Amino acid sequence: MSLIACHDCDLIHRVDAVPEGSIARCSRCGAVLHQHKPDSLDRTLALTVAGLILFVVANAFPFLGFKLQAQVHEILLITGVRELYHQGMWILATVVMLTTIVMPALQMMGLMYVLVPIRLNRIPWKLREVFRFIQFLRPWAMMEVFMLGILVSIVKLAKMATIVPGIAVFAFMALTFVLTASLAVLDSHSVWERIKIRESTRGIPVARTHPIACHSCHLLCCSPSQEAHGPTCPRCGTNLHRRKPDSIARTWALILAAAVFYIPANVLPITIVTSLGKKHADTIISGVIYFISSGMWPIALVIFVASVFVPLIKLLALSYLSFSVQRKSRWRPVDRTKIYRMTEVVGRWSMVDVYVVTILVALVNLGALASIEAGPAAVYFCGVVITTMFAAMSFDPRLIWDQMENKNE
Ligand SMILES: [Zn+2]
Ligand SMILES: [Zn+2]
Q1: CB within 10 Å: which end of the chain, N or C, has fewer?
Q2: 116-119 — which CB contacts under 8 Å span 24+ positions?
């Protein structure tokens, strides 16, 4: 039996041992408190090993081939990043490289580093730092979004030329599934439990009735360690806050920044196509219109929803949530918490258009005959996605519930 505080509404639950394969949910807001995943560590380890092998194949072998008339142009996974860099889009090149290559690789290596010693009943050096880093990387590794980007680009180019998929594309596809699965079966609770702690030996006691829940390892801290920069979790070392600091002010600042980026992202050209010596600039909307006019409805819908609709809805939802907390609203807290969870999940999918641009730039590179350059909107668009993701992260859903508790007292 253990005490778990809900990470979305901060209600403290007494949870008895959760049977294998079942989930304990918060009785107030429905968030997952604890999920007991059978053989979690073994399965995660096996999938991670498979993932590392696929990762090498996906990076070493030809990714896609582009055949136009007699010319064939073959690319690797990294080609898009290199091409963006050569076009002076180094911010975009860095973001694409980090989210599709570096972060997934670090994630898998980190999991190996943590899980192999644990299997051998040892505690690896710096376990808490490494494991916290793996959790931090989670929202930023976007292989599945890149996968969608590949599909969109293939459909987009199908009319123009023949696209020949390489071995690496299939490896990448398998890797996407394997990595997603390995993180889905990982029970982080069982890793954190390996770290034995002796609370209250050197910590500062907080009131027994109001323990602080740790954000990363979900330990309920009754007596956090006192470091120079404030109380920290005795198990994982994260700084403890009862609520995220300056949550509402930070969220508003990031919403505002994203709203500013949103305008050039939609007005400026996202791609500049050269075809038989003629240049032609495309914005996100003109791309969507092109797809509709050529009868490719599903692709038009994917691009429109991911690039125009989702960022806008996310900005509106976060503004509404921040506003409702400031107004001390007591209206439907469960639904507002659901809205918050939705904004956290959907945001990353907006990156799809950035990835489409990356792939197009790499593939269509035949000089004056046919080539595509990234336009300035791609950078602003990337800015929109990243700032809205940070905005969702800085909003604290527990603020929605604080108002409900005030009344009960
Ligand atoms: Zn809850
Ligand atoms: Zn902790």
Answers
A1: C
A2: 116/45, 118/41, 118/191, 118/194, 119/41, 119/42, 119/45
Per-residue pLDDT of the chain (409 residues), as tens digits, is 678 888 898 888 888 888 888 888 999 999 988 888 888 899 999 999 999 999 999 999 999 998 887 888 889 999 999 999 999 999 999 999 999 999 999 999 999 999 999 989 888 888 889 999 999 999 999 999 999 999 999 888 888 888 889 999 999 999 999 999 999 999 888 888 887 776 544 445 554 557 888 888 888 887 677 666 778 888 888 888 888 889 999 999 999 999 999 999 999 999 998 888 888 899 999 989 988 998 888 889 988 999 999 999 999 999 999 999 999 888 888 999 999 999 988 888 989 999 999 999 999 888 778 889 999 999 999 999 999 999 999 999 999 998 877 655 4
CA distances 199 to 132, 185, 321, Å, are 20, 29, 36
Asked whether the beta carbons of 155 and 287 are under 8 A apart, the reply is no
Residue list, CB under 5 A from ion ligand 1: 6, 8-9, 26, 28-29, 31
Tokens of 19: 């049977």
Kindly give the distance from the C-alpha atom of residue 31 to the centroid of ligand 1, in angstroms, as a whole number.
5
Distance of CA 371 to the CA centre of its chain: 31
Dihedral (Cα; 301, 254, 245, 209), 10-degree rounding? -20
Summarize the chain as % helix, strand, coil (round to 5): 55, 15, 30
Predicted TM-score (pTM) of this structure:
0.90
Determine the distance separating the centroid of ligand 1 and the alpha carbon of 398, expressed in angstroms. 8
Q: Which of 18, 7, 341 is nearest to 190 (CA)?
A: 18
| Cα–Cα dist 324/337, whole Å | 12
Q: Identify whether the C-beta of residue 148 lies closer than 8 Å to the C-beta of residue 219.
A: no
Report the C-alpha gap between 188 and 404 in whole angstroms: 30
